[in-house]
Amino acid sequence: MSRLQETHRRINAELSQEKAAALGRAGERLEAALSHAAELSRRLDATANLEEQERLLGEYESARLRALHARLALLIQREALGLRQHKIVDQKFPEPPRRTAARRPL
Prior knowledge:
Elements: H1 3-46, H2 50-80, H3 87-92
Helix pairs in contact: 1-2
């Protein structure tokens, strides 16, 4: 293998590693965003205080939107790498549902 070919091979290997690392970081950001939204959803379910429900509902909606953006970033990253089928993303990282405050009788 010539010196030029070896240099080309090393550069391609480095590019592949960076692509994989970027995809991994996008997945980690999505996991963190989904985890935060799920925690807020659990807290929303656990509270009977209407003011607290409204506050948590606002926080949840913000977290849900961050998760949707992180999910979109992951899908874009996958597309850039040539991964066109996203069924696994849909299964592993489903979109957080919209929520309303669960009003409980006092």
